[in-house]
């Protein structure tokens, strides 16, 4: 079918969602638009792929998923620690073991993340309209630092006292300390367990969504093999 | 007419592909990392050494620094720090916002002090009066009711003046009469003839006013643990805020000595370490490293924390965030073409004019027409 033919004949609605991908936004009835947006940008074949470009064959390509796996381990072990209460791991051997898993999963996460970060810099993975993927990745990195930092602040032992007392100077110098008191353990528990973790999980979801939508960047020099946005012949509402 | 909507292609790559499964890969990754973490946790555990340090007293796992620990292990330091808290001579008393009204203490960059701006917006959010909050109030509440001599000493001290309002500036905390007593007593405590036990102080006779009684009472409530309860509690609620105790403890020398002995001091790249050579926040290497840069004069720069904080915003946040759009930075991967190693198999196969050898089958051809169609009834 020619490009003209496609342009002349709008694609029929997706049989599952009844969305064509061209629905207009409406404040009172946004659901059809959202359905169309999701079908257009996140069809299930992209969200749950069973094929990938052949160049994705380096072990370096596993660093992203390993970072995510370590995050999952950190969230699960952290949830158990939080459920037990902020101090129980000092006196309970199961809690101490969970704390160790939490500790090492965070170390592993940052290790994998660092390799992921460096790899994507040197492969220039921002090419081909992937700028937001890069930016959300950096934001996820910053949020990970804040999350781990507040985690170190709620250990309820000397280490957390010392780190809080030392860190307050930078926070106060920047003026943030007026409302974010790193020596206030109660505030840090909320910041760590709820606030930064929720933000991190959200940003990581956006990061992964962007990767799934646009695919991984091609090798430099192979950009011509990428399928461009709006290229003729691309159906909209097919999942 | 419908508005034009950007359409991302269903397939983003028309070159050779290979089979893969996202769920399978994710599951394997989670299991792999979980096993790795369980192994590391079993082999090495995690740092919770408390106040252990070479040559120091035994410390149970997870011990926190407390007034009781301080009193038992270094009553001299506690007594001398308490005197300075009364005199407004400690780091906390001279800190400025958000703790007190002490002027000229906030860190500046190009004449701008963010702490002062925050104070103008939010007020003094964590007001501390070192004399009242660390010494007079706890001694009045915990020791004076059962000890008339302490009660009389507190009354006499307060009658001599001094500003005990929350957040009072360092210079206002003690009156000249009080400063005379405090300076005399501080000299006596520092003398080699001074003798300390966790609950008593022996110095040469002198003009100290009520100060010795108050400081001895401070040692007593530290020793019996009630001072820690006071710092951790709150007049009305249950407390989770450890600010007061931390600020008091950190004015002493034992606090920093323990950290240095454990190798976690600021000049030891401390934030990257944990006790017993456990890794700490290794990812803060850039932040920790800036405190070691000679050009920033770490030992004499009064604005060091602000300088480092601003540099971190630029180098640790903005630079990586916008690296793809910053000239020179975004050329680095071209100058150091590591991607040629990463994609060597792909480039080799392309040079041979054939797809990579590991391609197991032909790629799925991109759909040339929409699939689907109208829903099938039933």
Structure characterization notes:
The complex is a heterodimer of chains A (239) and B (378). Chain A is mainly alpha-helical and 239 residues long. Helices cover 59% and strands 1% of the residues of chain A. The longest helix of chain A has 30 residues, at 93-122. Chain A starts with a helix and ends in a 25-residue tail after the last helix. The model of chain A is unreliable at 1-6 and 233-239 (pLDDT under 50). Chain B is an all-alpha fold. Chain B is built from 16 helices and 3 strands. Chain B has helices spanning 22-44, 67-73, 75-87, 114-122, 130-142, 148-159, 176-190, 211-223, 226-232, 243-250, 253-262, 285-290, 304-321, 332-335, 339-342, 344-351, and strands at 17-19, 195-197, 200-202. In chain B, strands 2-3 form a two-stranded antiparallel ribbon. In chain B, a hairpin with a 2-residue loop joins strand 2 and strand 3. Chain B starts with 16 loop residues before the first strand and ends in a 27-residue tail after the last helix. Mean pLDDT of chain B is 87; it is low at 356-378. Classes of the chains: A mainly alpha (239), B mainly alpha (378). At the A-B interface, helix 2, helix 3, strand 1, helix 4 and helix 5 of A face strand 1, helix 1, helix 4, helix 10 and helix 11 of B.
């Amino acid at each position: 079918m020619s490009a003209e033919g496609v342009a002349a004949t709008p694609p029929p609605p997706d049989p599952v969602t009844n969305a064509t991908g061209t629905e207009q936004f409406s404040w009172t009835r946004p659901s059809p638009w959202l359905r169309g947006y999701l079908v257009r940008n996140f069809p299930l074949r992209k969200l749950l792929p069973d094929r990938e470009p052949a160049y994705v064959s380096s072990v370096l390509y596993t660093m992203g998923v390993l970072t995510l796996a370590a995050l999952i381990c950190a969230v699960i072990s952290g949830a158990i620690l939080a459920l037990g209460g902020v101090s129980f791991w000092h006196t309970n051997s199961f809690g101490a073991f969970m704390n160790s898993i939490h500790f090492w999963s965070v170390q592993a996460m940052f290790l994998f993340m660092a390799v992921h970060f460096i790899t994507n810099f040197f492969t220039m993975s921002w090419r081909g309209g992937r700028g937001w993927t890069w930016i959300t990745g950096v934001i996820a990195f910053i949020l990970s630092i804040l999350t781990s930092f507040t985690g170190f602040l709620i250990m309820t032992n000397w280490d957390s006292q010392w780190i809080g007392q030392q860190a307050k100077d930078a926070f106060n110098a920047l003026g943030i300390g007026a409302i974010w008191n790193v020596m206030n353990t109660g505030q840090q528990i909320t910041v760590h367990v709820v606030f930064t973790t929720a933000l991190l999980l959200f940003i990581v979801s956006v990061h992964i969504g962007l990767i799934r939508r646009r695919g991984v960047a091609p090798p430099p020099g192979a950009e011509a093999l990428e399928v461009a946005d709006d290229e003729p012949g691309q159906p909209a509402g097919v999942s | 007419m419908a508005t034009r909507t950007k359409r991302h292609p269903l397939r983003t790559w028309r070159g050779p592909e290979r089979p893969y499964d996202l769920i399978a890969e994710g599951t394997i990754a989670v299991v792999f990392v979980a096993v790795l973490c369980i192994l590391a946790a079993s082999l090495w555990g995690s740092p919770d050494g408390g106040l252990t340090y070479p040559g120091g007293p035994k410390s149970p796992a997870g011990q926190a620094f407390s007034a009781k620990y301080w009193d038992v292990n270094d009553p001299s330091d506690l007594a001398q720090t308490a005197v300075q808290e009364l005199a407004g001579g400690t780091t906390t008393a001279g800190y400025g916002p958000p703790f007190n009204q002490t002027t000229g203490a906030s860190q500046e960059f190009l004449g701008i002090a963010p702490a002062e701006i925050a104070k103008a917006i939010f007020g003094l959010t964590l007001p501390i009066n070192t004399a009242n909050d660390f010494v007079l109030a706890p001694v009045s509440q915990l020791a004076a009711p059962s000890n008339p001599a302490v009660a009389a000493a507190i009354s006499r001290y307060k009658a001599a003046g001094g500003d005990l309002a929350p957040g009072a500036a360092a210079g206002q905390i003690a009156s000249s009469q009080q400063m005379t007593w405090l300076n005399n007593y501080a000299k006596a405590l520092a003398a080699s003839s001074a003798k300390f036990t966790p609950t008593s102080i022996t110095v040469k006779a002198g003009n100290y006013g009520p100060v010795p009684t108050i400081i001895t009472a401070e040692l007593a409530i530290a020793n019996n643990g009630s001072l820690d309860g006071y710092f951790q509690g709150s007049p009305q609620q249950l407390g989770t805020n450890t600010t007061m105790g931390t600020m008091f403890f950190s004015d002493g020398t034992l606090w920093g000595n323990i950290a240095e002995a454990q190798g976690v001091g600021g000049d030891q790249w401390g934030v990257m370490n944990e006790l017993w050579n456990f890794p700490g926040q290794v990812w803060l290497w850039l932040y920790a490293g800036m405190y070691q840069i000679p050009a920033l004069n770490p030992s004499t720069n009064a604005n060091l924390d602000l300088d480092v904080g601003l540099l971190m915003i630029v180098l640790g946040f903005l630079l990586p965030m916008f690296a793809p759009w910053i000239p020179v930075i975004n050329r680095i991967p071209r100058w150091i073409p590591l991607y040629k190693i990463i994609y060597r198999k792909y480039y080799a196969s392309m040079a041979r004019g054939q797809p990579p050898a590991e391609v197991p089958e032909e790629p799925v051809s991109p759909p040339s027409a929409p699939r689907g169609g109208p829903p099938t009834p039933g």
